[in-house]
Design brief:
4-stranded parallel sheet; 15 strands; 15 helices; single chain; 10% strand
Amino acid sequence: MLPLRPRLAVIAAAALLVSGCASLDAGPDDAAPATSSSRSEDREPTSTPTPTATETPVDPDTPTSWGPTVGEVEEARELVSTWTPEQLAGGVIVGRFHGTDPQEPARMVRELHLAGVSVTGDNVVDEQQVRTMTAALAAAAGADGRDFPPVVGVDQEGGYVSHLRGVATEFPHFQSAGLAIEADARQGRRVTRAAALTTGLELRDLGFTWVFAPVADVTVGAADPTIGPRSPSQDPRTAAQAIGAAIKGYDDAGIVSTVKHFPGHGTATSDSHDTLPVVDSPLAEIEAHDLPPFESAIRQAAPAVMLSHLDLTAVAPGVPASMAPEVYSLLRDDMGFEGVAITDSMGMGAVAGRPKPALQALVAGADLLLMPVDTAVTHQVVVDGIASGEVSRERVEEAAARVVALQRWQARVAAQRPVPADVVERARAASADLLSAAY
């Protein structure tokens, strides 16, 4: 394996994020990053240092570089330290469910203590059913003793990956953001940020707390069978600008965004839904082509990053990225990301046949396991893994605490930003503006 070249010199310079206004005009990607108005100025790194006798304790209201305050992180750590193995196991799983009965995912959240669930198009009937379902999920989390919302997530990227079709406003493919930026960088960033803002607000109005977007993959065009127009661009810098603007918009909306699919699915020539794609790019090529949009996301305080199921031969040959410690080290140690790391769906063909994939991912560094094939079975596997020592309790507590802290951040920011009564009209206008700017 090639050594991972440290990239913290670049990231650290941007880690002290400066608060910006909630204007829809995102600045250049390489400018001093602006964050949503809920973030305070002179941001500090997310890690919470242990004060020495000569150091001043960190103010608990100091924001981290990924959203929650230092105090929220510490409170989350204290809380999960009291959890049973069953609660801990649930706290690192975003489950899948079948059918459209709102009480089924609510039961799973309540009985398995799940962090939350992912809603797909197969779970959706109409707007009223969606609202009933998300309300039932919030109530189930409360019944489980939580004072923070569950993860209620959905793939709502725009284009054909939009699981709320017929319920939420339809937006064009994210490729439109890149095209708009290439046509007029300033205007393109503005309409991209507005699209993310209104998407997030509309999702919040429907009861969602997470959106599994934006896509940060830099596509290679026709040879890319999976991402295609879901990618903002074939140009890394254009993609980076689109991602930076989108992250700001989602943050402004008070919803948790999920940058995906680290470290970049755009060069894979097979589909990880079916098989484990092999990416033979040298590390230097990955750094130049695939990582810039993720670097932009981290500079803009991305709260969550989704790990891909790719075999990166230059980093961890033969192991899916979502289960490779080396890939999590690239994300955290080299790039400085300290937020929630979530896997891509654990039901995908690239990983579904591997032995105990959930434990492999947790041990490697995942904080959330997305949509395992069988949620209840995976929950028991994690409980048993904690008991046997296959995964340490300390590792699972670290993961669960990040999730709890992020959900408290989401609740706090959402409370500060009521959804406007005309959110649907705003979303439709933003969708039209993005399409117009792109074409």
